[in-house]
Amino acid sequence: MSETPYGFDAAKLRVARTAAGTSVARIARATGVSERAVSLYLAGTRTPRPEILMQLAKAVGTDPAALCTVEHETLAHLRIFTGRSRSAMARQLGMAEETYRQMETTGQRGRLARSRYDDHEDRWIAWQEWASPLFGVTAERLDAAEQHTREQHLAERERRWQRLRLAAPDRAVRIEDLGRAGRRLRRR
Fold this sequence. Notes:
There is one protein chain. With about 190 residues, the protein is mainly alpha-helical. The protein folds into two domains: about 1-70, 434 Repressor (Amino-terminal Domain), CATH 1.10.260.40; about 75-188, no CATH class. It contains ten helices and two strands, in the order αααααααββααα. It has helices at about 10-20, 25-30, 35-45, 50-60, 75-80, 85-95, 95-105, 125-135, 140-165, 170-185; strands at about 115-120, 125. α2 crosses α4, α5 packs across α9 (about 140-165) and α9 (about 140-165) crosses α10 (about 170-185). The N and C termini lie far apart (about 45 Å).
């Protein structure tokens, strides 16, 4: 599964458990983990893996997103809320794992994720229409997650670039010069 931080919130699990009126033992049996693990999740000292998050949500009668605090959902969040690994999500979407990883990291869809032809309906179907059910969300929520993924990627890229400029200004200047030279060559 993923090591992507996804905003698990122990307080929300405690509230959901209370609302469901269920015991630690019952949650442990439903999720297939030990009572100690459930206690650690409830205490906030351990974060469940995405597939366990799915089981915890089912055990307390809610959905995985309700057990998390996320300012802006990204594609990684949507995948994790389905309880899938990157490779499982890539298979579900019918693309190579590396292609999916790139999309989840940058928010940029390649050719494979633009539209698909549906033989049954004899028409092309847009990405949002065919992919949103696989993520278990609406097309609008998928669009918003893609946008937040792109913004997060660009912000992280800018932070790395700023660190490089501070740590090795000569190297940063050489990289900028190479980038300008490459852009000039592509224009020819």
